[in-house]
Amino acid sequence: MPMEQNRAMKRNSREELKRMSRNYSDVKKLLCRESESEPEFILTAEEEGEILKNLAMSSIKQDKAVETLEEAAKKLDLVSEPMTH
């Protein structure tokens, strides 16, 4: 896999993590607003930390998968090269 694709995949993973974090913040804000018909929902710092940790772990797993695919592609390139004497 070319390095440019690898970088793009890692960049996309980071952007996805940021997007998920922003979405989480938006949902939290909506749920925390006062509502007459529903009780107020507020996450504890521990719950928030756990969610952010899970998001980060997901990103790390994606990065490792990209690295594994890149290593496999390099091995395939080596195997497909013609042998010269």
Task: Give a short summary of the structure.
The chain is an all-alpha fold and 85 residues long. 78% of the residues lie in helices and 0% in strands.
Can you describe this structure?
The chain has 85 residues and is mostly helical. The protein has one domain (3-80). It is built from 2 helices and no strands. It has helices spanning 3-32, 45-80. The two termini are 27 Å apart. The relative contact order is 0.13. Residues 1-20 are annotated as: Disordered.
What overall form do the CA principal axes indicate?
Answer: elongated
Number of strands: 0
* Oligomeric state of this protein: single chain
The residue ranges in which pLDDT falls below 50 over 5 or more consecutive positions are none
pLDDT averaged residue by residue: 75
- Helices, by number, come to 2
Give the radius of gyration. Answer: 21 Å
Helicity level: over 70%
Computed structural class: mainly alpha
Any idea how many domains?
Answer: 1
Characterize the biggest β-sheet. Answer: none
Q: What portion of residues belong to β-strands?
A: under 5%
